[in-house]
């Protein structure tokens, strides 16, 4: 972890005086799954609290010990046995809910499928039998490189059922990224599809797999779902899903797996280095995924229709499309395609069509919808929504308010949920029936989580000051390590503050003691001796009515150390903007945050460089601002945007 300084208190106390606050709707608060007492109970006895949550699940054998903590290694519910797929599927059928829709799937071209819990149990059982027939056993790794189709969920649950470890690779990743992950995990089976629909046309997956496995003999078979019907090359080790799974028995007797048996590996790339294989195990992970999904979204499985718009290729999809919602018996909407295909109202059309009551998406999507204009969602009936959530990046206060107003009809709580691939499940978030939400703030740790903001020395900061977020006590869904690299696990998360887990994010406590997440510490700028967070300058820019999105970076400056260079996308998307407007935007930042935070240079651009998971890549903007050749762009959604942005920059 790069050593960095925390945002200085002096600067932070000047920043963003957010006074808006939205109390929970009375009706929701009255019937909320979780009330304020949960915090007290968890504070009194944290382990008893998590033990109570573990009883949400069905165990074949209960645990002997709740937590075995040998820092930095935790084991939860030691001695317990359970099967994650039974918890996500069979249990609901056995309880008489077999006819409930588990998945309401919407394909990009408009085809759709409803899969009930009973049907899901049959398919998962068939797939489990097929995997066993292909020689996959407990502990084996299985790569899943798929579009957003129901078979992806079936494949994950079938792995979980037989104790194989799934490793989902985002379908937008390249051959090299797939190959690197196959090498590191030594997967023996790859599950893929001919292709999926993206932006109105079939996009292929199988050719990338063919290339990746060509010189990787460890992969024994490739199991292929037919989705688009496009032509595929066929190799000796390839097997059609409809033959192998379709022909298998739907009877499968599951065994209980150890609470600490691996469930999956999810690679997270960080900024530059080799991706880290984050390992999650079974009992603790499922407990926290299940509890947080029920508590943070106030899920009522009988009546809610829940939609998480993330891709299953990210941890958000694992915990909040698959394991959390299905373990709770929820009805989950799943959408294959992009938000603007065939038109920019597609998301809202889906909300209206399925009567979605809970929606969960990323700030980058919300800011895109802001840019497209509020008249688009206004055309649809979104009145079914009752809780809406955000995840993946800090949500700027203006984006929060826009989301609440234009999507939530001015009445739904917005839950800004902070967590990471490594934490496995939500850690910091408001609770919709308890917390008065503040635009831009993730508010506080959920019950049972000991997150705090500390200074350079690891001491808790007082209200009104900033520093680093840390977690003081182990939590059930914490990563159990980095696949094959123990030293890196210790170095990355446990060395900055001895005894504390360090996620790598900056944070502050405001005057009320509420928590704000300020992005990766590597993104903090140092201007004339002041630490200024990119997030706060960006939020100030987005709070101007003309601005839809903003990214700022610190560029080396002989005089000030770093100077702030900002990139903005205007609402409506114009690129040629009068200098007066840019001047006005700079002054706007100056008056909201103080003159020190005024960008020295501000450019209007048509797009920003983003990773495929929607995070702004400030590292590349810094390269541009410092007139350097830009570094690795392989994880960008669209690398050509870098040239467009570079052209806007004044010559040195
Ligand atoms: C990083 C983790 C969480 C699952 C999806 C991303 C940033 C995430 C928030 C939030 C501010 C957030 C952090 C974190 N982040 N949620 N609500 N407010 N920042 O998982 O790819 O592992 O990324 O995303 O910087 O460390 P990930």
TrEMBL record:
<comment type="similarity">
    <text>Belongs to the ATP-dependent AMP-binding enzyme family.</text>
</comment>
<keyword id="KW-0479">Metal-binding</keyword>
<dbReference type="InterPro" id="IPR032387">
    <property type="entry name" value="ACAS_N"/>
</dbReference>
<keyword id="KW-0547">Nucleotide-binding</keyword>
<dbReference type="Pfam" id="PF13193">
    <property type="entry name" value="AMP-binding_C"/>
</dbReference>
<dbReference type="GO" id="GO:0003987">
    <property type="term" value="F:acetate-CoA ligase activity"/>
</dbReference>
<dbReference type="InterPro" id="IPR025110">
    <property type="entry name" value="AMP-bd_C"/>
</dbReference>
<protein>
    <recommendedName>
        <fullName>Acetyl-coenzyme A synthetase</fullName>
        <ecNumber>6.2.1.1</ecNumber>
    </recommendedName>
</protein>
<keyword id="KW-0067">ATP-binding</keyword>
<feature type="binding site">
    <location>
        <position position="316"/>
    </location>
    <ligand>
        <name>CoA</name>
    </ligand>
</feature>
<feature type="domain" description="Acetyl-coenzyme A synthetase N-terminal">
    <location>
        <begin position="37"/>
        <end position="88"/>
    </location>
</feature>
<keyword id="KW-0460">Magnesium</keyword>
<feature type="binding site">
    <location>
        <position position="547"/>
    </location>
    <ligand>
        <name>Mg(2+)</name>
    </ligand>
</feature>
<keyword id="KW-0007">Acetylation</keyword>
<comment type="function">
    <text>Catalyzes the conversion of acetate into acetyl-CoA (AcCoA), an essential intermediate at the junction of anabolic and catabolic pathways. AcsA undergoes a two-step reaction. In the first half reaction, AcsA combines acetate with ATP to form acetyl-adenylate (AcAMP) intermediate. In the second half reaction, it can then transfer the acetyl group from AcAMP to the sulfhydryl group of CoA, forming the product AcCoA.</text>
</comment>
<feature type="domain" description="AMP-binding enzyme C-terminal">
    <location>
        <begin position="536"/>
        <end position="615"/>
    </location>
</feature>
<feature type="binding site">
    <location>
        <begin position="416"/>
        <end position="421"/>
    </location>
    <ligand>
        <name>ATP</name>
    </ligand>
</feature>
<dbReference type="InterPro" id="IPR042099">
    <property type="entry name" value="ANL_N_sf"/>
</dbReference>
<dbReference type="InterPro" id="IPR045851">
    <property type="entry name" value="AMP-bd_C_sf"/>
</dbReference>
<feature type="binding site">
    <location>
        <position position="544"/>
    </location>
    <ligand>
        <name>Mg(2+)</name>
    </ligand>
</feature>
<keyword id="KW-0436">Ligase</keyword>
<feature type="binding site">
    <location>
        <position position="542"/>
    </location>
    <ligand>
        <name>Mg(2+)</name>
    </ligand>
</feature>
<feature type="binding site">
    <location>
        <begin position="392"/>
        <end position="394"/>
    </location>
    <ligand>
        <name>ATP</name>
    </ligand>
</feature>
<feature type="binding site">
    <location>
        <begin position="198"/>
        <end position="201"/>
    </location>
    <ligand>
        <name>CoA</name>
    </ligand>
</feature>
<dbReference type="InterPro" id="IPR011904">
    <property type="entry name" value="Ac_CoA_lig"/>
</dbReference>
<feature type="domain" description="AMP-dependent synthetase/ligase">
    <location>
        <begin position="95"/>
        <end position="483"/>
    </location>
</feature>
<dbReference type="Pfam" id="PF16177">
    <property type="entry name" value="ACAS_N"/>
</dbReference>
<feature type="binding site">
    <location>
        <position position="528"/>
    </location>
    <ligand>
        <name>CoA</name>
    </ligand>
</feature>
<dbReference type="InterPro" id="IPR000873">
    <property type="entry name" value="AMP-dep_synth/lig_dom"/>
</dbReference>
<feature type="compositionally biased region" description="Polar residues">
    <location>
        <begin position="1"/>
        <end position="16"/>
    </location>
</feature>
<dbReference type="Pfam" id="PF00501">
    <property type="entry name" value="AMP-binding"/>
</dbReference>
<feature type="binding site">
    <location>
        <position position="520"/>
    </location>
    <ligand>
        <name>ATP</name>
    </ligand>
</feature>
<feature type="binding site">
    <location>
        <position position="505"/>
    </location>
    <ligand>
        <name>ATP</name>
    </ligand>
</feature>
<feature type="modified residue" description="N6-acetyllysine">
    <location>
        <position position="615"/>
    </location>
</feature>
<feature type="region of interest" description="Disordered">
    <location>
        <begin position="1"/>
        <end position="22"/>
    </location>
</feature>
């Amino acid at each position: 972890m790069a050593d960095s300084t925390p945002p200085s208190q002096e600067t932070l106390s000047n920043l963003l005086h957010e006074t808006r606050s939205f109390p929970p709707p009375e009706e929701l608060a009255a019937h909320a799954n979780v009330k304020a007492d949960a915090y007290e109970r968890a504070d009194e006895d944290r382990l008893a609290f998590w033990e109570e949550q573990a009883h949400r699940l069905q165990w074949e054998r209960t645990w002997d010990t709740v937590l075995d903590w040998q820092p930095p290694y935790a084991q939860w519910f030691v001695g317990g046995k359970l099967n994650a797929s039974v918890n996500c599927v069979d249990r609901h059928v056995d309880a008489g809910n077999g006819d409930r829709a588990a998945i309401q799937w919407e394909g990009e071209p408009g085809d759709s499928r409803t899969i009930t819990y009973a049907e899901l149990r049959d398919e998962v059982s068939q797939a489990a039998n097929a995997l066993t027939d292909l020689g996959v056993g407990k502990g084996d790794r299985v790569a899943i490189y798929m579009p957003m189709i129901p078979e992806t969920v079936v494949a994950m649950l079938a792995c979980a059922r037989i104790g194989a470890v799934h490793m989902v690779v985002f379908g937008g990743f390249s051959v090299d990224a797939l190959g690197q992950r196959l090498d590191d995990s030594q997967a023996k089976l790859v599950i893929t599809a001919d292709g999926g629909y993206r932006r109105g046309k079939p996009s292929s997956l199988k050719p990338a797999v063919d290339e990746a496995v060509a010189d990787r003999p460890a992969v024994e078979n490739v199991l292929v779902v037919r989705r688009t019907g496009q032509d595929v090359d066929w190799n000796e080790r390839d097997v059609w899903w409809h033959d192998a799974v379709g022909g298998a028995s739907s009877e499968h007797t599951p065994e209980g797996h150890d609470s600490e048996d691996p469930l999956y590996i999810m690679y997270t790339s960080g900024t530059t280095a080799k991706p880290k294989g984050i390992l999650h195990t079974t009992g603790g992970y499922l407990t926290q995924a299940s509890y947080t999904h029920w508590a943070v979204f106030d899920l009522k499985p009988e009546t809610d229709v829940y939609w998480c718009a993330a891709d299953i290729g990210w941890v958000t999809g694992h915990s909040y499309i698959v394991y959390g919602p299905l373990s709770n018996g929820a009805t989950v909407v799943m959408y294959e395609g992009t938000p603007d295909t065939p038109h920019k109202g597609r998301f809202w059309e889906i909300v209206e069509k399925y009567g979605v009551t809970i929606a969960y998406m990323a700030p980058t999507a919300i800011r895109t919808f802001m840019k497209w204009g509020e008249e688009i969602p206004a055309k649809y009936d979104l009145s079914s929504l009752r809780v809406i959530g955000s995840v993946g990046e800090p949500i700027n206060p203006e984006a929060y308010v826009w989301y609440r107003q234009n999507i939530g009809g001015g009445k739904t709580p917005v839950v800004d949920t902070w967590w990471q691939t490594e934490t496995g499940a939500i850690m910091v978030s408001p609770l919709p029936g308890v917390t008065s939400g503040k635009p831009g703030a993730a508010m506080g740790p959920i019950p049972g989580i000991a997150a705090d903001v500390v200074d350079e020395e690891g001491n808790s900061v007082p209200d009104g000051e900033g520093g680093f977020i840390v977690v003081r006590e182990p939590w059930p869904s914490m990563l159990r390590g980095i696949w094959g690299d123990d030293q890196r696990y210790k170095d990355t998360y446990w060395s900055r503050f001895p005894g504390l887990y360090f996620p790598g994010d900056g944070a502050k406590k405001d005057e009320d003691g509420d928590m704000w997440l300020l992005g990766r510490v590597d993104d903090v700028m140092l201007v004339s001796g002041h630490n200024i967070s990119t997030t706060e300058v960006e939020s100030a820019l987005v709070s101007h009515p003309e601005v839809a999105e903003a990214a700022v970076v610190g560029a080396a400056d002989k005089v000030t150390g770093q100077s702030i260079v900002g990139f903005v996308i205007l609402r409506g998307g114009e690129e040629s903007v009068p200098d007066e407007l840019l001047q006005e935007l700079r002054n706007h930042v100056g008056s909201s945050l103080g003159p020190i935070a005024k960008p020295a240079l501000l450019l209007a651009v048509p797009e920003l460089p983003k990773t495929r998971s929607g995070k702004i890549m400030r590292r590349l903007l810094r390269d541009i601002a410092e007139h350097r050749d830009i570094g690795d762009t392989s994880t960008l959604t669209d690398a050509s945007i870098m040239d467009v942005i570079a052209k806007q920059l004044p010559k040195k």
